[in-house]
Amino acid sequence: MLKFIKHHLDTITGIGIYPAISFVLFFGFFLVVLIRLWKADRGHIDHMSALPLARDGRPNTDSAHDH
To answer: Does the pTM exceed 0.70?
Structure first.
């Protein structure tokens, strides 16, 4: 099965550019996310990390638990 696919891929002209394009897109996306994370405000990161534990969209800042 792999020989069948490889044979057809080898017959396509210019197929070698697709792995390079895939790598550039992946690496570019990775760099954009890394730069955005590096430049993010620490207060925003703290706010977003507290949201899963929040009620009504506001982070829980109380130290006592509600029972």
So the answer is: no
Q: For residue 55, which phi and psi values (nearest 5 degrees)? A: -110, 140
pLDDT one-digit tens code per residue, 16-28: 899 999 999 999 9
Q: Where are the alpha helices (DSSP H) in the chain?
A: 2-10, 17-39, 42-50
Question: What DSSP designation does 51 have?
Answer: G
Task: Please name the residues in contact with 51: beta carbons below 8 A apart, sequence gap of 6 or more.
Answer: 57, 59
CB neighbour list of residue 47: distance below 8 Å, 6 or more residues apart? 59
- Where do we find the tokens 């509600």? 66
